[in-house]
C-alpha cells in the first residue's frame, strides 16, 4: 500500500532512512528502472554505507528530499539496472587472457602465426597454451585440424589449444607423448575414454584433436599457475567484466580452490562485482555445500548455493548428444560426458541438500535426459521454488520445450551463440531440428523463464553484443537481412530483462538486484544512449561507468581502453 500511495502522490518511492546514513544522489536524463510500476525516473538516492537504494523518482523531488546529499549529475545519459551475465566463467576468462588468443583466426596458418608470436614470451620448455580456434570459420577447410600443423612449427614444445567452445583440445606430438607416458599406453587404437573421443585417422592414430573428456588426457598434465598468477588472472577477468557493464556474473563450475580465492578477494574488498558461484560438479565444492549449507559472503558480493553439472558436449565439435545422427556426420550422435546413472546420483545429492541445480545440455538427447531426470527427482516437489536450470538449451525438440515451464525450469541461454553458430548450425542438425534451436521466443511463449548470458570466454565479455544478437539475430555486418530465424528475435525490452531482472531471478537474487527499487542494491550501468531507443545499435552503446553498491567500479574517463 505504501508503494501505491507513493505513486498516487507523484512522489518517489522511499526506503526508511537508516540512522546516520550517508546519502548520495545521482540525477540523469533517463533512468530505466526495470520496475513495471515505475519504469522511468530521473534520480536515484542511496545509502553509501550499505549500498542500498533509498529512493527512486524525479530529480526535483529527490533533491528536495536530500538537500545536503552529494550529487552526481550524470547529464544526458541513460542509467539501467546492473547487467548480469547468467552464464560465464571468470577463472577460464582469466586463463584465456594469459594465453595465445586464437579467436577469429581464419586459417591453420594464421593460428600458427599467432602461436609463434606468443611463443616469444615463453621460457624454454614451457607449455604453449592458446584458446579460441574454430575450424568452422577457416578458409582453408572446415574439418578438424591435424597434429602435423603443430608438429611442423613446434616439434619439441608441448602445445595445447582449447577450441572456442571449451569442448575440444588440439595438441601436438610433444603433448601427446606426455599423456601417453602418464597413461602407460598409446592414444592410438580403437579405445575411447568415457564421455570423450580421441579423433583418429584411418590407421587408428590420434590426429591431435581430443573431444570433451578425452581432452583431459592431456590437459591434466599442464602445470597449474601459482597463487600469485591465479589472483592476477582473476583480477584481470573481473576488470574485463566491469569494463563492459557487468555488475554480476553467474560463474558456472567453480572449484573449492577457486571459491577460496574469490573469498579472499571479497574479504579484502577487491571483488568489484557480484559472483553467484555454482560448484563444479559432484566434487569437493558440492560436498562443502552439503556439509555447511549455501555460502554467502557478509559483504553480499559472493555466494554459492547451487551446482553446475554436465550432460553432453558442444554442437561445434559435434559432441552435443543428439537423438538421431548429425545431419553432416552420419553414425555420430555426440557424447554424454556424464553417464545418466552418475548424473542421477549427482542431481539427487543436490536435491537432498536443497541446492539449485544447473546442467549444461546442448543436444536434444542431452536436454531430454536432463528434463527427465529433473522430473523424476523433483517429483511432487516440482512446484516448489527450486529454479533449477538448463544451461544452453540449444537444440531441443518442439515437444520438450513446453516442459521447461511445466517443471519450473529456467532456460539459461546465450544470444551470441546463435549468431556465432548460424552459419553452420542447420548443416549440423537439418531443417527440422533447427526449429527447436536457439528458440528464445518459444520458451517465452510457453511461460518459461529466460535468463541471458554470454558463456565467456567462449564468446566476448560484452553484454551489449548479447543484447544486439538477441534483438537482431544478425552478425555485426547486419547479415542475414532480417535476421536468422527472425521469429525468435527478442524485443529490446525482453533482451534487457534477460540480462537484468530475469537473470537475477534465475539466481534467487531478485530481492537484491535486477531492478532499481528502494531497498535493492544500487547496482547500475550508465550508457551514453538509451538501449530501448529502437533507432540505435545496441552493440554500439558506450559504457560510461559501472556501479556496484553505489560505488563506481569502472569509469571510462579514468581508463584508457
UniProtKB/TrEMBL annotation:
One Pfam family in the UniProt entry: Amidohydro_3
Coiled-coil regions listed in the entry: none
GO molecular function: hydrolase activity, acting on carbon-nitrogen (but not peptide) bonds
Domain Amidohydrolase: 72-554
UniProtKB keywords: Hydrolase, Signal
Entries under SUPFAM superfamilies matching the protein: Composite domain of metallo-dependent hydrolases, Metallo-dependent hydrolases
Gene3D superfamilies: 3.10.310.70, Metal-dependent hydrolases, Urease, subunit C, domain 1
Keyword Hydrolase: yes
Residues in the signal sequence: 1-21
PANTHER family for this protein: IMIDAZOLONEPROPIONASE (PTHR22642), PROTEIN LONG AFTER FAR-RED 3 (PTHR22642:SF2)
The protein's name in its UniProt record: Amidohydrolase 3
Amino acid at each position: 500500500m505504501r508503494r501505491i500511495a507513493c505513486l498516487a502522490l507523484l512522489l518517489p518511492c522511499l526506503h526508511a532512512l537508516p540512522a546516520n546514513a550517508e546519502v548520495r544522489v545521482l540525477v540523469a536524463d533517463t533512468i530505466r528502472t526495470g520496475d513495471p510500476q515505475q519504469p522511468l525516473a530521473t534520480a536515484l538516492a542511496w545509502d553509501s554505507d550499505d549500498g542500498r537504494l533509498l529512493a527512486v523518482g524525479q530529480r526535483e523531488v529527490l533533491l528536495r528530499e536530500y538537500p545536503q546529499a552529494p550529487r552526481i549529475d550524470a547529464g544526458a545519459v541513460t542509467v539501467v539496472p546492473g547487467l548480469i551475465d547468467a552464464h560465464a566463467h571468470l577463472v577460464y576468462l582469466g586463463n584465456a587472457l594469459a594465453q595465445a588468443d586464437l579467436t577469429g583466426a581464419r586459417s591453420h596458418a594464421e593460428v600458427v602465426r599467432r602461436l609463434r608470436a606468443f611463443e616469444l614470451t615463453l621460457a624454454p620448455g614451457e607449455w604453449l597454451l592458446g584458446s579460441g580456434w574454430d575450424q568452422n570459420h577457416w578458409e582453408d577447410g572446415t574439418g578438424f585440424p591435424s597434429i602435423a600443423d603443430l608438429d611442423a612449427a613446434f616439434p619439441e614444445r608441448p602445445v595445447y589449444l582449447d577450441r572456442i567452445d571449451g569442448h575440444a583440445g588440439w595438441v601436438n606430438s610433444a603433448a601427446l607423448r606426455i599423456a601417453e607416458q602418464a597413461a602407460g599406453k598409446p592414444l592410438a587404437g580403437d579405445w575411447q575414454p568415457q564421455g570423450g573421443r580421441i579423433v583418429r585417422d584411418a590407421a587408428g592414430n590420434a590426429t591431435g584433436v581430443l573431444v570433451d573428456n578425452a581432452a583431459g588426457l592431456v590437459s591434466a598434465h599442464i602445470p597449474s599457475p601459482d597463487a600469485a598468477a591465479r589472483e592476477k588472472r582473476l583480477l584481470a577477468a573481473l576488470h574485463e567484466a566491469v569494463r563492459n557493464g557487468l555488475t554480476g556474473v553467474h560463474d558456472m563450475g567453480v572449484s573449492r580452490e577457486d571459491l577460496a580465492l574469490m573469498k579472499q578477494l571479497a574479504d579484502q574488498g577487491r571483488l568489484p562485482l557480484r559472483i553467484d558461484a555454482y560448484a563444479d560438479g559432484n566434487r569437493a565444492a558440492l560436498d562443502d555445500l552439503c556439509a555447511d549449507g549455501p555460502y554467502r559472503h557478509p559483504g553480499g558480493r559472493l555466494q554459492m548455493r547451487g551446482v553446475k553439472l554436465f550432460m553432453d558436449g558442444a554442437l561445434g565439435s559435434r559432441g552435443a548428444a543428439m537423438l538421431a545422427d548429425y545431419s553432416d556426420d552420419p553414425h555420430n550422435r555426440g557424447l554424454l560426458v556424464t553417464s545418466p546413472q552418475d548424473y542421477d546420483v549427482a542431481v539427487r545429492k543436490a536435491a537432498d541438500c536443497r541446492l539449485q541445480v544447473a546442467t549444461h545440455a546442448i543436444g536434444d538427447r542431452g536436454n531430454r535426459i536432463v528434463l527427465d531426470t529433473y522430473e523424476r527427482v523433483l517429483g511432487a516437489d516440482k512446484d516448489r521454488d527450486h529454479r533449477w536450470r538448463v544451461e544452453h538449451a540449444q537444440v531441443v525438440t518442439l515437444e520438450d520445450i513446453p516442459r521447461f515451464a511445466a517443471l519450473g525450469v529456467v532456460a539459461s541461454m546465450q544470444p551470441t551463440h546463435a549468431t556465432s553458430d548460424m552459419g553452420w548450425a542447420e548443416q549440423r542438425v537439418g531443417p527440422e531440428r533447427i526449429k527447436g534451436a536457439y528458440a528464445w521466443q518459444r520458451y517465452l511463449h510457453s511461460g518459461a523463464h529466460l535468463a541471458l548470458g554470454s558463456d565467456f570466454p567462449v564468446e566476448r565479455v560484452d553484454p551489449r553484443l548479447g543484447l544486439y544478437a538477441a534483438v537482431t539475430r544478425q552478425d555485426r555486418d547486419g547479415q542475414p537481412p532480417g535476421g536468422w530465424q527472425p521469429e525468435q528475435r527478442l524485443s529490446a525490452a525482453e533482451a534487457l530483462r534477460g540480462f537484468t531482472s530475469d537473470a537475477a531471478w534465475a539466481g534467487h537474487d531478485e530481492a537484491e538486484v535486477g531492478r532499481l527499487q528502494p531497498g535493492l542494491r544500487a547496482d547500475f550501468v550508465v550508457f551514453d544512449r538509451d538501449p530501448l531507443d529502437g533507432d540505435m545499435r545496441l552493440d554500439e552503446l558506450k559504457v560510461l561507468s559501472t556501479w556496484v553498491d553505489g560505488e563506481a567500479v569502472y569509469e571510462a574517463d579514468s581508463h584508457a581502453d
